[in-house]
Design goal:
Radius of gyration: 14 Å
Strand content: 15-25%
Helix content: 10-25%
CATH superfamily: HIT-like
Number of helices: 2
Distance between the termini: 40 Å
CATH topology: HIT family, subunit A
Shape: globular
Order of helices and strands: HEEEHEE
Number of strands: 5
Length: 116
């Protein structure tokens, strides 16, 4: 049985989201609580709970997540100044939804990688 998440419902467009990109492998949408002027989540359309659950079979979707992130950064006008990509994993990584997702943040200085 596949675990249902809020992201599963966004992929199927059962919940509203500001979707900026979707194809057969990934969906990208604006974060509802943006940390920077550009904050987009890029997720696989198949459910992969955490990075620790990734297998070699998932390499095409992970590659697509990265190429879509670069394309969105260019479209958003943040590629030249730079941006950050983040994937959190489990409790200590502060993963909030158990469906892997990559944060694309930019449009302003993103600050130090880890503080405190």
């Amino acid at each position: 049985m596949i675990e249902e998440t809020i992201f599963s419902k966004i992929i199927r467009r059962e919940l509203p989201a500001d979707i900026v990109y979707q194809d057969e492998l990934v969906t990208a949408f604006r974060d509802i609580q943006p940390r920077r002027p550009t904050h987009v989540l890029i997720i696989p359309n198949t459910h992969i709970p955490t990075m620790d659950d990734v297998t070699t079979a998932d390499e095409p979707v992970l590659g697509r997540m990265l190429s879509v992130a670069a394309s969105i950064a260019r479209d958003e006008g943040i590629a030249d100044d730079g941006y950050r990509l983040m994937i959190n994993c489990r409790e200590h990584g502060r993963q909030e939804v158990m469906h892997i997702h990559m944060h694309l943040v930019g449009g302003a200085d993103v600050g130090p990688m880890i503080s405190g």
